Amino acid sequence: MYTALSIVDGFPGKSASHGAFGWSSLWLIEGEGRRILVDTGPPAYVPLIHRGLEQHGLSASEITDVMLTHTHWDHIGNLTMFPTATPWIGQAELTWATLQPPGTQFLSDLHVRHLDSDPRVQRIDGESEILPGIFSMETPGHTPGHLAYVVTGADGPSLFAGDAVKNLHELTTARADSTMDADESRRSIERVRSALKSSGGMLIPGHDVPLVASGDQFERAGDVLARFSYFDTEGEHDSVISIPSTRSSRRH
Ligand SMILES: [Zn+2]
Fold it and tell me: Which pTM was predicted?
């Protein structure tokens, strides 16, 4: 049995002018003698990760495992912050990533090379119970070898969907933004969706707060909060973006 705790909540926003925000979900799983991070966030998260771990009485050196959903920069960007942790990633994802040319969109070349040359990396071959009570789930589309993780918990499973399901909108519509294969993404979302409905647990998307099934709908289990400001007006003209959890979407 594990307990899942948010270190940094994902944010379901998209820049219309400056590429991806990359504000991904970063969660801690504690149990069975392990302290596991699911993904590591973008480089800007470093102080947030330190602060989030400190709130649970932990430091980066106490993380035992890092389970990666895929090789995009906003999910593997802080891998080297945890040099004593065992990294886990799908074999198919890593193989695919190593074959891509430099400059491939969203891929973090240096981290991919680092992973590929690290003998401690646990390469997950398809679907299995990778640790007691933790199962890998193949969810291709966003990337070819993307993995989700299903984690057993006292209040039902936590389903870490990564970017197979980035936000409430994707879970609701089964239409993925930023995917390498829209049909595969739709199948992966539908599979995750039925796993969520049948399990009664919670889904942690790649870029949103936890989602739960509620009748025929899905909804956020908490509010989405973010603050924006300019350097020269910091503290004076902050804009707060707040999406209340009650704003759920009906399935199309
Ligand atoms: Zn991604």
Answer: 0.94
